Amino acid sequence: MSDCLFCDIAAGSIAATKVYETDAVVGFEDINPQAPVHVLFIPREHVASAAELSDAHGDVLVELFAAAAAHAREAGIADRGYRIVTNVGDDAGQTVHHLHLHLVGGRQMMWPPG
Length: 114
Prior knowledge:
Elements: H1 5-11, E1 18-21, E2 25-29, E3 37-43, H2 58-74, E4 82-85, E5 101-105
């Protein structure tokens, strides 16, 4: 999709500190981290948000969550806990309209989140 920041990161035309990359999924460090570990996992295919998901996205969803869990183990936060978040729409705080999972951890999380 044109004018999509995350599509450009996935394509490599915008630099990012990538931690995971396959044909279907890219993981990269958030440029405004909210915790010691804050990584975004995105599908390469442009999907605006979780509201647009269908049964056809099952494989990529499994890979997104598996990649996040693997990175949590690699980052040393898996045993103490971490949060995986996706925002849907402007009121939820979605600022880039490309499906992404935030992996956040390395500090105590609060509830409700905000």
